[in-house]
Structure formats: C-alpha cells, structure tokens
Automatic annotation (TrEMBL):
Signal sequence extent: 1-20
Gene Ontology CC: cell envelope
Lineage, highest ranks first: Bacteria, Pseudomonadati, Pseudomonadota, Betaproteobacteria, Burkholderiales
Biological source species: Sutterella megalosphaeroides
Predominant cellular place of this UniProt entry's protein: other
Pfam family, one: Cytochrom_c3_2
Protein name from the UniProt record: Tetrahaem cytochrome domain-containing protein
Keywords tagged on the record: Electron transport, Heme, Iron, Metal-binding, Signal, Transport
Subcellular location as annotated: Cell envelope
Length: 113
C-alpha cells in the first residue's frame, strides 16, 4: 500500500475519532461532560422555543469578568468590549452552530465555541 494512502487513512481515522469525542454543539459538549439539561434550562424538560439566561451560564462559569479573564489573550477580548452585557447565547448557541457576532460588523474572523 502506498505510504500516502496509509497516511490519509490514519488522518481520516483521527478525524472521525476526534469528532466522536468532541460533539459539534455546545449543549452536547456540556452533556458529554455530565451537565444536565436542567443546569442550563432550569427545568428538566425544556419546551420548543426555550431560551437560557446568562445567569445559568454564570452559575458554573462564575462571572463575565472571570470569562473575560480566560480570553484576555484575544484582542479585542470577546467578553470585554462595547457590547458588554450581551446574552451569552447571542454568540454561544446551545444546539446550533455558534455565531460570530463581532464579525458581523468588524473584520474579526473568530470561531465561537
Ligand atoms: C450548555 C447549556 C445547555 C444545555 C446543557 C442544554 N441546553 Fe438546550 N438550549 C441551550 C440554549 C442556549 C438554547 C437556546 C437556543 C440555542 O441557542 O440553540 C437551548 C434551547 C433548547 C430548546 C429549544 C430549541 C428550539 O429551537 O426551540 C430545547 C427543546 C432544548 N434546548 C432542549 C435541551 C435538552 C433536552 C437538553 C438536555 C439533553 C438541553 N437542552 C441541554 C443551552 C443548553
Ligand atoms: C453545569 C455547569 C455548566 C453550565 C450551566 C454551563 N457550563 Fe459551560 N462549561 C462547563 C464546564 C465544566 C466546561 C469545561 C471546563 C471549562 O472550559 O470551563 C465548560 C466549557 C464551556 C465552554 C468552552 C468549551 C466548549 O465546550 O466549547 C464554553 C464556550 C461554555 N462552557 C459556555 C457556556 C455557556 C454559554 C453556558 C450557558 C448557555 C454554559 N457554558 C453553561 C460547565 C457549565
Ligand atoms: C460577542 C460574542 C460572545 C458573547 C456575548 C459571549 N462569548 Fe464566550 N466566547 C466568545 C468567543 C469568540 C470565544 C472564543 C475565544 C477564543 O478563541 O479564545 C469565547 C469563549 C468562551 C469560553 C471558553 C474560554 C476558553 O478558555 O477558551 C467560555 C467558557 C465562554 N466563552 C463563556 C461565555 C459566557 C458564560 C458568556 C456570557 C456571560 C459568553 N461567553 C458570552 C464570544 C462570546
Ligand atoms: C452592530 C455592529 C457592531 C457589532 C456587532 C460590534 N461592533 Fe464593535 N464597533 C462598532 C462601531 C460602529 C464602532 C465604532 C467604530 C469607530 O468609531 O471606528 C465599534 C468599535 C469597536 C472597537 C473600537 C474601540 C471601542 O471600544 O470603541 C472595538 C475594539 C470593537 N468595536 C470590538 C467589538 C467586539 C469585540 C465585538 C463583539 C463583541 C463588536 N465590536 C461588535 C460596531 C459593532
């Protein structure tokens, strides 16, 4: 077998493994770490149209200041800027691809987890 083909298969294997280990959406990654639906939603069985308050996120993540401290290496800081107070879920979607809100006005090519 050609070396390049073996390498391609190995890489494909890695890609599949890391995908399985790291679910695509934020809520799934939290559930995989043991978080309950209730920890974000406040209820055991969230209904369609359910939203999550930033307070629920802060219960585990501390405060906006603490989160901003974690991302201070990024300039500008996504958690400390003129949009302070924006709901977490405006950027961090629970069950869908997250949104690069800052990039909608600025040339900031950010990947939002
Ligand atoms: C990390 C926090 C988090 C966890 C854990 C979480 N969710 Fe959500 N969920 C959200 C957010 C944020 C929204 C708002 C919509 C969005 O951003 O996708 C939402 C929305 C929803 C909605 C409304 C979706 C719609 O389009 O109407 C349902 C239903 C839901 N979640 C069910 C669940 C269930 C069931 C679980 C547990 C298996 C769960 N969620 C766990 C954050 C979470
Ligand atoms: C039950 C506790 C809990 C709640 C509630 C919670 N988180 Fe988390 N979150 C964690 C833990 C634990 C981690 C992994 C360790 C870390 O990075 O802090 C994490 C990691 C993250 C990460 C980085 C890693 C990843 O999977 O992307 C983001 C972004 C995040 N949380 C955002 C949120 C947002 C936004 C909300 C509210 C919608 C929320 N979290 C609610 C516990 C929680
Ligand atoms: C304007 C969009 C935006 C809002 C609003 C926002 N975030 Fe973030 N968040 C980001 C971006 C962008 C990153 C990725 C930073 C990076 O790449 O280092 C991030 C990363 C994170 C991380 C992971 C930090 C790490 O160590 O890698 C956590 C946890 C987090 N956010 C929690 C929150 C919580 C909780 C809220 C609400 C209080 C919130 N975020 C509001 C854009 C946002
Ligand atoms: C709705 C459009 C819009 C969004 C979304 C937006 N900005 Fe801005 N931002 C502006 C405007 C308008 C200015 C002022 C431009 C100027 O005077 O040059 C600005 C100015 C700034 C500046 C210059 C310094 C300051 O504070 O005035 C920074 C840094 C900045 N934005 C970062 C961000 C970040 C980070 C995000 C995401 C959290 C974001 N912006 C989201 C429109 C936006």
């Amino acid at each position: 077998m050609k070396k390049s083909l073996v390498l391609a298969m190995v890489l494909a294997g890695f890609a599949a493994t890391s995908f399985a280990a790291e679910p695509a959406f934020l809520a799934d990654r939290h559930v995989a770490r043991g978080a309950s639906c209730e920890s974000c939603h406040g209820v055991k069985a969230p209904a369609p149209g359910a939203k999550v308050s930033s307070t629920a996120c802060m219960n585990c993540h501390g405060s906006l200041d603490k989160v901003a401290e974690r991302t201070k290496a990024k300039v500008p800081n996504p958690h400390y800027n003129h949009l302070i107070g924006t709901d977490c879920q405006e950027c961090h979607k629970g069950h869908a691809q997250s949104v690069n809100l800052c990039g909608s006005c600025h040339n900031l090519d950010w990947k939002v987890p």
